[in-house]
């Protein structure tokens, strides 16, 4: 994955997610925002896009992408390794939270 993130343009990476079809104009504007306005490196953009699509049911919600991108800028995420480390930590947190919610829901059902 590291090789793909570092050697693929965000446009081509997203086009691959679209199964070879040109991404929507909205998604392309989002890529432009990340690259031009936030000055994120292409490889880091690829990790961000991959992460968002994985945790958000293949949806690129602009507000959510901007929130995560802003967090990464504040954390000074500049390399693929840094971005992948952050996504792994965040994914672990989400997984634990989901498991906790599942256990809480099961306990409520048992009491009822």
Please tell me about this protein's structure.
- With 112 residues, the protein is mainly α.
- 77% of the residues lie in helices and 0% in strands.
- The protein has helices spanning 2-7, 10-17, 25-37, 42-55, 62-74, 80-111.
- Helix 4 (42-55) packs parallel to helix 6 (80-111).
- The model has no long low-confidence stretch (mean pLDDT 91).
The amount of helix comes to: over 70%
Q: How many strand units?
A: 0
**Shape descriptor:** globular
Uncertain stretches of 5 or more adjacent residues: none
Q: Can I get a quick summary?
A:
This protein is an all-alpha fold and 112 residues long. It is built from six helices and no strands.
Question: What attributes does this structure have?
Answer:
about 110 residues; mainly alpha; 6 helices
Layout: helices, strands, pairs:
Elements: H1 2-7, H2 10-17, H3 25-37, H4 42-55, H5 62-74, H6 80-111
